[in-house]
Design goal:
Chain lengths: 432, 432
Amino acid sequence: MIRWNELTLQQQQGALMRPALSASKNVEVAVNDIIEQVALNGDSALITFAEKFDKRSNVRLQVPQKEIDNSVKVLSTELKVAIETAYNNIKTFHQAQLPNSTSLETTPGVLCELRYQAIDAVGLYVPGGSAPLPSSVLMQGVCAQLSGAKTVVLATPVNGDKKIDPAILYAAKLCGITTVIESGGAGAIAAMAFGTETVPKVSKVFGPGNSYVTMAKQILSQSQPGFAIDMPAGPSEVLVIADERANPEFIAADLLSQAEHGRDSQVILLCNNTLVIEKTQQAIETQLALLPRADIARAAMQNSSLILVESIEQAFAVSAEYGPEHLILQLGEPEQYLPLVNNAGSVFVGDYTPESAGDYASGTNHVLPTYGYSKVYSSLNLLDFFRTYTVQTISKQGLKALSSAILPLAEAEGLDAHAYAVKVRLEQLTND
Amino acid sequence: MIRWNELTLQQQQGALMRPALSASKNVEVAVNDIIEQVALNGDSALITFAEKFDKRSNVRLQVPQKEIDNSVKVLSTELKVAIETAYNNIKTFHQAQLPNSTSLETTPGVLCELRYQAIDAVGLYVPGGSAPLPSSVLMQGVCAQLSGAKTVVLATPVNGDKKIDPAILYAAKLCGITTVIESGGAGAIAAMAFGTETVPKVSKVFGPGNSYVTMAKQILSQSQPGFAIDMPAGPSEVLVIADERANPEFIAADLLSQAEHGRDSQVILLCNNTLVIEKTQQAIETQLALLPRADIARAAMQNSSLILVESIEQAFAVSAEYGPEHLILQLGEPEQYLPLVNNAGSVFVGDYTPESAGDYASGTNHVLPTYGYSKVYSSLNLLDFFRTYTVQTISKQGLKALSSAILPLAEAEGLDAHAYAVKVRLEQLTND
């Protein structure tokens, strides 16, 4: 237990320090090589990578439509319903984010509009690993579906000679995705950035991934004009603010459900009560003993801090400085504290709002800025699948009125052709 | 004149090719050195750079408030009114973009919200060069003001021993900016990313700049967690679509008002009429003869193409492929073609809507994605000064209802602690 007020400023900064990201030079070299091979050899490079990295034989790149359609038949009813419920809630929440154009006259005869255009072609990446991640399909796929993007590509690795998981396919089916590519890692990202014989070229790639995926997204978004990514990536993290009446079992469970994500996950508790912190420590040990991923969670707990604060207000100040991906408020009357929230990716309000609700099914998006990026980046939302552009329509009278602003500014900025483009039109008006 | 339909696919791609960006290794090395010096030496590094690059003596970093306040006194009435008119129009258009939270129940007892938070601290960069750019202050400053950002820093270089231009200061004053820093280039960007004794640290930097500024923005946004930039930069460009009734003098003036921006600017005309193209060519020559920046404009015209298309519909297809920063429609009944617009930064509709209207005073923002980035990036808008985050508040009943979705998904994904965070709460409910 750390007592916040007994720390020096430097120690306080140390307590909130995130584990260093070790994007090694090796990863960069390997990823650049993968990118080059995909650019040169397209599909055949992807097949080679699937054999090499995913240990597959008879590699198939695209899932047949029939397999997507039939996926529901091999799911348990329980999982089918769970995926449908999550899909519906995520869709309801994101549908409410559909944007409206803005249109107004700034000056009589000067109509200005802000319009939205769905990004034409998007790529959704779902990492592999020890278990399939249908929730990751839903979080990205619902947005792509609602945006009306013309091309939607889902790429995910499949390990060994297993079949692609039907839960992934059923989530894709609900989202109307027809292009599912069995390819992962940096190769899959490069394939979506360049396009290959099988993989359509996209303008923006979404989704989490390992250090190779992250590096590929970073390199390609910097080097390929017209190719963008959702947001920078970092390890997952949670910060819990709890008061004297909070339930230590709940706190421990929330901390561990973050810690089990990965060894580099970070969890922080800010609490104003010594006893609650001590009981949370005990509950963590008890719950860890029962946890299949205890090794991972225990490693993550090494990066983590249970901190005694003087007041709940102080806790919010510390949280704003840290900028957590997930912020859980186990407080009596938590709503009164919402105005103090700053720099959080997603906020979980009250004792009965665990992080796992938002990870799966409340309706909010679980793709969130982490590693301090929540000071400036947004949680994934529907607008990330759109771009805005402006339209102006100016009448003859409107241009006359604006000219008294345009001409002196163009002159001040030494841009005579800018001024002339107005003058030549005003002359024409005089001649008319 | 290029006849589009007589080109091979490869020649068509060549005709739309943008000039290569030469971000040289030298620039990268120099910028990394500048960043390091600012990180180490703060203000004193900025002073050294102002002496070296801007040829200043007695360098002052911060403009006194009194000088900002008094700037209006030394402006001509004409320029004062122009700045005020532009400010008002830009403010009117961007005020209409102020975001509203979304709040709804996705399931009874499951309240989900999308909220907006102004980015706390923003930096606005205005390049120096041969003339001051008050319009660049307004485009960025109005957004910062409307967002309510707590810290707003404006940085701009001042050449030689001139005073900072009062038009810059008056534009800043209208936008409520009190921190104006006389520093430019990569050093100014680094100062805003790190903070120095004089320069407040910011989370996001906006604005155009030369290759050093662009490189500094790119390096720092990749290496400093929690530091972001507005959008990738590229040379400016315009694409005009004109029909047989368009006025060649207007077309020429619009092409040249883009070409005078810089030698690397690109201008493209798509027209369905040979005669109009020929007359435009003549008008360009005539207008060039009168242009002070004719050298620059002439160089830019080398990268440029006047293209004969078969139909206006074909012109829109070519434009969508190119993705122009500015798209000007000199068409009869242009509104009917707006549904065909794709991948443009800002659209100028009709014969009396020159690009310079949007550059200065119509109300739309002139910070736009260029170099093909308009396929995926937005024109600068008020939301770029905000971030979104989500909030969920779940009741006991709400959690019960959601659990049938959360538990099977957590199990399918092998995340037991995620499931336990729900189960421990359901147990408590049973015990209650």
